[in-house]
Amino acid sequence: MSLELSEPLQKVVDSLSEKFSDKLVDVYQSSGDTFIRIEADALHEICSYLKNDLHYVYLSDIIGTDRYTSEDRFEVIYNLLSLKDEARFFLKVWCEEENPELDSVADIWKGANWNEREVYDMFGIKFRNHPDFRRIFLPEDFDYFPLRKEFPLLGIPGSIELPNTTPDTD
Amino acid sequence: MGLESALGEGYLTTRVDSLTNWARANAAWPMPMGLACCAIEMMAFAGPKYDAARFGSEVMRFSPRQSDVMIVAGWCTYKMSHAIRRIWDQMPDPKWCIAMGACASTGGMHRCYGVVQGVDNFLPVDTYISGCPPRPDAVLHALMKIQDKIKTEHSVMLDT
User: Fold this and answer.
1) Interface touch A154/B86, C-beta < 8 Å
2) How many folded domains does chain A comprise?
3) ipTM of the complex
4) A61 to chain B nearest CA, in Å?
5) Domain count, chain B
């Protein structure tokens, strides 16, 4: 399928394939959006290049996905926006089921801090060099990652504490 | 104008229980525990059109120390359940509880790991209201059920 990229996105794809030709895995379009998949080990390098040289200063969102495949089970999607070029694209990386770990981009975009904690909270994907790495919504002693496909819809009974209903006793 | 003119020089007899219950039933001040969209209907219940003042429940007390009926309106997460139970424990006895709407009663459409499947898991609920959200009439109905319940209670106990 031939790509119909807008001018700023064509610039992104061209400069990425020039500078990181061996790290660029896939470029495709779907429903009017552009997706660029890269190798996970080049994530931090490519992200700082995108921000510093191509002016993608705004990281709108970070999304985790459980693809539920035997290889490269988890996917993390970075929703990037350039305020100068008025262009948006999605940067994707895949990671393994066993010990999924990626480089944190919180030093590049400060807003990534809480997004990465949320992805960790829901999927258990760890982020290296994160400034404040812990769960964001669920209790620290919660043992599961609820948005993984194998997690039951109604949760594990007793895994989150209910209040004490006999307050006069301990 | 009041009771004294109707009675004239006469008198009436009653039990202390009945008198206490009559007073309690007609001054059940709600503690609004508005957690979600049900809280909007709860506001209509207190507003002039449905007028909870007819039942003596117009005073929404935002302090648990001054309230008698807790209306849990909306879905309750495990995180919030601790705050609700704490407020409930701060309310002085006697106290009653209304679980308003499908979510507070059973978890409703929020069938997931983070939402308590019914506030009766940690609160002694007296009245459940169905609906998503229930109409203000239904809240009035629940309040009248609570009033009926109060009127059958034994309020005075002899300390023997």
Assistant:
1) no
2) 1
3) 0.73
4) 23
5) 1
